[in-house]
């Protein structure tokens, strides 16, 4: 069976969405003072770096940026048959008292965001946590809502959303791969 694919955002669309998110972050926080970005590995890492560059271009100064692996915080870690692959976390700045913007590529069930908040709290106590995602595809299983969204797209539960950001110049894109909709009973 051939799965249908359609491009949701091309390079220019991703660029516009990230610029809009950056401006919304500045507006909501009245600048970037005491702001830090942390990308959720692996999808949020490149997006966080792009947002850092945009925020620094808009406001001047520097915005701390890191990334974290949430593998050991996932609630499904012991429900898989394979051993989880743990990647590095790199947050080399204090988060105490900061407004931390968690950054991810796609928001789906909300479980990755919950795991990232648990991981973040083990690093310290931020003043506030905000969430920025490039794509919100719905189907939430937890009461989590993003503060900043590049694009909302309706999807079936069995669809895949593939995001490519920052891997090569001009190669940014978001592709929806239609799958079988298998609702849980």
CATH architect. name of the domain at 13-73 and 87-153: 3-Layer(aba) Sandwich
What are the low-pLDDT stretches, counting only 5+ consecutive residues below 50? none
| Largest pleated sheet | 5 strands, parallel
- Please list the strands of the largest sheet in the order they lie side by side: 3-2-4-5-6
CATH topology of the domain at 13-73 and 87-153: Rossmann fold
> What is the beta-strand fraction?
25-35%
Shape: globular
Secondary structure: helix percent: 25-40%
Q: Strand tally, please?
A: 8
Elements, N to C (H/E): EHEHEEHEEEE
Summed up, the helix count is 3
Given this structure, which CATH class of the domain at 13-73 and 87-153 is correct? Alpha Beta
The averaged pLDDT comes out at 90
Helix/strand-derived class? alpha/beta
Explain what the structure shows.
- Strand 2, helix 2 and strand 3 form a beta-alpha-beta unit.
- The chain has 3 helices and 8 strands; from the N terminus they run βαβαββαββββ.
- The longest helix is centred in the first third of the chain and has 19 residues.
- The radius of gyration is 16 Å and the shape is globular.
- Helix 1 crosses helix 2.
- 26% of the residues lie in helices and 26% in strands.
- By secondary structure, it is of the alpha/beta class.
- The protein has a domain of 128 residues: Rossmann fold, CATH 3.40.50.2020.
